[in-house]
Amino acid sequence: MHALDVLEIAGALTILIAFAAAQAGKLRQRTVTYQLLNLLGSGVLATIAAVQSSWGFLLLEGSWAVISLIGLLSLRRSQREQAA
Fold this sequence. Notes:
The chain is mainly α. The relative contact order is 0.14. The model has no long low-confidence stretch (mean pLDDT 96). Helix content is 83%, strand content 0%. The protein contains three helices and no strands. The longest helix is centred in the last third of the chain and has 29 residues, at 55-83.
């Protein structure tokens, strides 16, 4: 197993942990933790997909990363508005 394989598995597990925790009712989807886990995992996988020219996988994971980033920014904006 190569280092890239380990990184790829870690990225996938990061996403799966967030998803499993949400499905089990342990983590709400509209939280910073959930969004960060998804952003981190999908960002790693998107980077690997780009390096390997895996365009379908890049589309999936790149989109996932962008959507997670938008969700994270939205949560941060809501938190700032509530604090003000």
